[in-house]
Amino acid sequence: MLQNRFGKLAATALAGSMLMGAAACGGSEESTSAQPSGAASSAPAASGAKVGLAYDIGGRGDQSFNDSAAAGLDKAKTELGLAETKELEAGNGETEAAKEERLRLLASGGYNPIIAVGFAYSGPVKKVAAEFPDIKFAIVDDAAATGPNVSNLLFAEHEGSFLVGAAAALKSKKNHVGFVGGVRTPLINKFEAGFAAGAKAVKSDIKIETAYLSEPPEFSGFNDPAKGKTAAQGMFDAGADVVYHAAGGSGSGVFEAAKAAKGLAIGVDSDQAKTAAADLQGVIMTSMLKKVDVAVYDFLKSFAGNSVKSGSTVYDLKSGGVDYSTTGGQVDDIKTKLDEYKQKIISGEVTVPDKTS
Fold first, then answer.
1. Inter-residue contact 324 to 331 (CB < 8 Å)
2. Residue 103: C-alpha distances to residues 8, 87, 100, 284, 312 (Å)
3. Beta partners for 150?
4. DSSP string of 278-319, one letter each residue
5. What is the largest CA-CA distance in the chain?
6. Domain match, 259 and 327 both
7. Which residues are CB-contacts of 220 (< 8 A; sequence separation ≥ 6)?
8. If you ran DSSP here, which 8-state letter would residue 351 be given?
9. Same-domain pairing of 188 and 332
10. Which of 291, 286, 247, 279 is nearest to 265 (CA)?
11. Predicted local confidence at residue 92, as pLDDT
């Protein structure tokens, strides 16, 4: 799934030139999602549809969040007979106006539906969807961008993070773990809150290190492996032996730090023991699976079936929207315990906090 880096740069440059021109002219496992709100649309069938996808920072090839969205699009290409797809990327430090023009470029180019990957598109989706009421939009990780033609694809990240937090505590030999967040936002705080709750459920006195790589409106923390490595290295040096990241493309730096420290890391969004560089996969004991691929595919399938609905669909642990990975066998010895926690969350016996206190 990873793109050739030269091709990626060329594609980004082309997209940038197209955006300037537009301005001048003036996301084998099956998931059952929660019931979305809103009325069914009368969109045309997706067979032969032109689908536009606007990535978050890092784009296709980040081995995490964006790649999961790309996997859903790729599956739809194969199974739904899409006529054409167009994928555009966000740049570090870009303005909301740039995101708006990216969405307008797709909409004015006849792409329908259009999927925006990440909460940073909240304002732009709300604005551009209102300008193109006949086009269906979906946005991943945001409930604020509302409209009759907007579908919000949401996740219970805190529930999946609880499970990997429990795994970290069960595997830690030093009773000391860490969390690296890409950007300090309410969304990433959900990951931290769930992770801490899971770790403390296993060991109430466990020490948890926390670091965020950037603060809003600076979102570079999702695409800065060097900064991720420095943050994780500090945690390992302080005594942690397992570090979980929710930092997008910066996670590769966390894995490098884990390898250097002979520690363990926990991936996010995708099964990163499969997607990370081969020499780093062995340090990834598990990943918190956030099935953006399932959400993206489900949305495109509903478009194909003329059943797109506006409003929120939440992919939680019960629906299979979040989970933990077992690639590499490093959590096989604690899987029974993790699955016990999983069932307690699903049954409601355990309620996972979605924010830190």
1. yes
2. 19, 11, 5, 35, 20
3. 137
4. TTTGGGEEEEEEE-HHHHHHHHHHHHHTT--B-EEEEE-TTT
5. 61
6. yes
7. 57, 92, 93, 213, 214, 227
8. -
9. yes
10. 286
11. 80
Q: In angstroms, rounded to a whole number, what is the distance separating the alpha carbons of residues 171 and 177?
A: 10
| Average confidence (pLDDT) over 94-112 | 96
Residue with tokens 């955006």: 19
Residue 45 located in a structural domain: yes
What is d(CA 81, CA 166) in angstroms, rounded to the nearest whole number?
41
Give the total number of structural domains in the chain. Answer: 2
Q: What is the pLDDT of residues 270-306, one digit of tens each?
A: 999 999 999 999 999 999 999 999 999 999 999 999 9
Domain assignment of residue 352, yes or no: no
Question: CATH code at 76?
Answer: 3.40.50.2300
Amino acid identity at 154 = L
Q: Which residues pair with 134 in a beta bridge?
A: none
* Same-domain pairing of 267 and 307: no
Each residue's pLDDT tens digit, 63-76: 889 999 999 999 99
